[in-house]
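ok here's Fe-S assembly protein IscX, seq below lol
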Amino acid sequence: MKWTDSRDIAIELCDKFPDVDPKTVRFTDLHRWIMELDDFEDDPNHSNEKILEAVILCWMDEFE
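and the structure came out like this:
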């Protein structure tokens, strides 16, 4: 997965952290958790606030 795969990242996070409400996640934690996903293979420096917001929004959809 890459930073542009917001939906896939969100699904993985939802599976890995089923009890975490994405509305409560800080961007620093989100970035670290994404980097720790087994299938994630992108440069850590290629993320930004817009990308992390997109992941959070997708995760919120999956969480509900």
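fwiw The domain at 6-63 is CATH 1.10.10.600 (Arc Repressor Mutant, subunit A). kinda neat tbh
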